[in-house]
Amino acid sequence: MMPKNFYFVILLGLVSLFSDMTYEGARSITGPYLFYLGAGAAVVGFASGFGEFIGYGLRLFSGWLADKTKKYWGLMFIGYALNLLSVPALALVNSWGLAVLLIILERTGKALRTPARDTLLSYATFKMGRGLGFGIHEAMDQIGAFVGPLIVALVFYLKMGYKPAFLVLLIPALIALSLLTFAKITYPAPQKFEKGFLELETKGFSKSFWWYLLGMCLVGAGFVDFPLIGYHLEKTSILSKDWIPILYALAM
């Protein structure tokens, strides 16, 4: 019989699988969708770029807040709700301004919930091994990220359009939130999985770390987010909108 912490890792992996299915499915078409709503390339670049900035920068605060308050589940529920429900809400807007707001809210939700979720995962993987536990979680995460855009591509293949595509993504969003609720009820205190603590000795960072960090900053600075790529693919008709989410799925 598998230990409880293993089941908890699988359960959070399923939450991430259906979550990624939702928001990565949406991200595969947000660029073309903004074009459809009349936005220009600068707007798409701002929405995706600022959204990513919020999605990562806000984690400094949400991580501190999770450590300070220990309200891991609360932050996760708020974050996942924002992250996931912003996606089907895109089907309800008719202006690119509101769409941009929802895109940024989606990234804000991810920023709020990720540090809290990873903390609970770290508790659950204490005995089974961090690498194995996070590896399982990431694998399930990537499955969802691959399947989500394919679902959107299927909607387009059936000639249903953008708004039905976003509405269809409500299904995995609700499944993810239901699984999260089940996880909270079943394992209300994952901290108990980690008995004892590790003492870490810190000695600062080596020069190689700072060179690595500089390299990653340069990579990030030159990175073009897929919504902007998708926008130009749609605008120039290089690919039909049916194939744009498939291209994104392959990039996963």
Automatic annotation (TrEMBL):
InterPro entries: MFS, MFS_trans_sf, Uncharacterized_MFS-type. SUPFAM superfamilies: MFS general substrate transporter. It is a multi-pass membrane protein. GO terms for cellular component: plasma membrane. Its main location: membrane. Keywords: Cell membrane, Membrane, Transmembrane, Transmembrane helix. It is found in: Cell membrane. It comes from the Bacteria. Coiled coil: none annotated. Pfam families: MFS_1 (PF07690). Gene3D superfamilies: MFS general substrate transporter like domains. The chain crosses the membrane at residues 36-56, 77-105, 139-158, 165-189, 209-231. One of its GO terms (molecular function) is transmembrane transporter activity. PANTHER family: BLR5212 PROTEIN, CONSERVED PROTEIN. This is MFS transporter. It comes from Thermodesulfobacterium geofontis. The lineage of its organism: Bacteria, Pseudomonadati, Thermodesulfobacteriota, Thermodesulfobacteria, Thermodesulfobacteriales.
